[in-house]
Amino acid sequence: MPGGDFHPWFFVIVAAWVLVCGLGVVLFKKIMYSAVSMVFCFLGVAFAYALLNAPLVAIIQILVYVGAISIVIIFAIMLTEVQSGKMELFFNRQTAAAAVVALVGAAVLAAVALSADIGRIGDKSLTPGLRQLSRLIFDRYVFPFELVSLVLVAAMIGAIVLATRERERP
Amino acid sequence: MNALNWWLLLSFLLFCIGAFGVLARRNIILVVMSLEIMLNAVNIALVAIANFRGGAAAGAGTLFALFIIVLAAAEVTVGLAIVIANYRNKRTVQTDTYDELKG
């Protein structure tokens, strides 16, 4: 179990939290329950980042995912239909095949993750501090950083164009 | 066994849960939500590797996670705008009714 500067049980709690909430997202019938489960899953992932000594990523996760993306998704749910009825309305015909694929994939990946010889690394955290990170963003990775802002502007304009109703011309 | 192995296990299992949601669910918004879960799983792996590897990989891994978060925000806005625009025409969010491009 991962240790370091926190008790191993913290990892168990966070992992169980994230996985149970993730399962809730894909298995709940009511989509609103799924959305709430998703919010808690994102929150658990933020705790995972905090345990991994990445406080900046944890804070951004809470701001962007728990704050913004969840709200957008809940808005979209409320603007569209709410389904109720039989199981076939929620899971499509390939559900059994999808479950097999997911389970086999999970088994293979779990075997890989647990048996992989990652090399000589300790339990010690080597994450750079905020100062080094900002130096990296604005020096070495400044071009991707600017590209990301361009993508954000394009996405914003695209979303507005797509979602606004076309006005009838007089 | 390293601590990193356990974090990677968590990441991979979460990824498979999200993949199941993408493959099996009918509601297009739930597919988007499952996609977000998969992106989060990848982010956990990136941050975990950055945390334990150190060196040049550490900063790059953390920054990649941040970029993925921002790009996921852009992706979800555009994706849900498409869903809303499509819902306005078809009055449904079931994935199997989106078959105009089938030919």
Please supply descriptive tags for the structure shown above.
heterodimer; A: 170 residues; mainly alpha; 2 domains; 6 helices; globular; B: 103 residues; Helix Hairpins; 3 helices; elongated
What does this structure look like?
- The complex is a heterodimer of chains A (170) and B (103).
- The longest helix of chain A has 25 residues, at 55-79.
- In chain A, 71% of the residues lie in helices and 0% in strands.
- Chain A has 170 residues and is an all-alpha fold.
- Chain A is built from six helices and no strands.
- Chain A folds into two domains: 1-83, Four Helix Bundle (Hemerythrin (Met), subunit A), CATH 1.20.120.1200; 128-170.
- With 103 residues, chain B is mainly α.
- Chain B has one domain: Helix Hairpins, CATH 1.10.287.
- Helix content of chain B is 81%, strand content 0%.
- Chain B contains three helices and no strands.
- In chain B, helix 1 packs antiparallel against helix 2 (28-53) and helix 2 (28-53) runs antiparallel to helix 3 (56-90).
- The mean pLDDT of chain B is 88.
- Chains A and B meet through helix 1, helix 2, helix 3, helix 4 and helix 5 of A and helix 1, helix 2 and helix 3 of B.
- The rounded Rg of chain B comes to 17 Å
- Terminal Cα span of chain B: 52 Å
- Judged by helices, strands and strand pairing, the structural class of chain A is mainly alpha
> Based on DSSP secondary structure assignment, what is the total number of beta strands of chain B?
0
Computed over alpha carbons, the radius of gyration of chain A is 21 Å
Helix content of chain B: over 70%
Q: In the CATH classification, which architecture of the largest domain in chain A applies?
A: Up-down Bundle
Proportion of strand residues of chain B = under 5%
Query: What is the approximate shape of chain B?
Result: elongated
Report the structural category of chain B: mainly alpha
Q: Please, what is the average pLDDT of chain B?
A: 88
